[in-house]
Amino acid sequence: MWRRGRSLVELQAADLMKECQKNAIERGDLAPGDSVEKYLGFSVTDVSMVHRDKGTEHGVWFRLDDGRVIDAQGKECDPDRELYFADLGDVDPGDL
Predict the structure, then answer these.
(1) What is the pLDDT of residue 34?
(2) What is the pTM of this model?
(3) DSSP for residue 30
(4) Strands annotated E in 9-92
(5) Number of neighbouring beta carbons within 10 Å of residue 73
(6) What distance in Å separates the CA atoms of residue 38 and residue 57, rounded to the nearest whole number?
(7) 78-91 confidence digits (pLDDT tens)
(8) Which of 24, 75, 85, 89 has the smallest count of CB within 10 Å of its CB?
(9) pLDDT by residue (tens digit) across 35-60?
(10) Is the separation of the CB atoms in 35 and 25 below 8 Å?
């Protein structure tokens, strides 16, 4: 749901985080009552950019305001900006 004052990055990140949560629950990595913030380790307001590609890898990486990069499973990744391509386009749920 769109809320006044939220950036396009936050809106996209919120949708992607929900998809990550759904996938984590299906894999048994997260209990149905647990929050996506608990699983990924950050909130949507911490996201400054979403990356879809890292070199030849396709997926989703969240770049946080503090410079860290977290993947769709909540694991910290190399923060080197040159490794990633930024994209606000559609993400294939299979990449999560």
Answers:
(1) 94
(2) 0.81
(3) S
(4) 47-54, 57-64, 69-71, 76-77, 84-86
(5) 15
(6) 25
(7) 999 889 876 554 44
(8) 89
(9) 999 999 999 999 999 998 888 888 99
(10) no
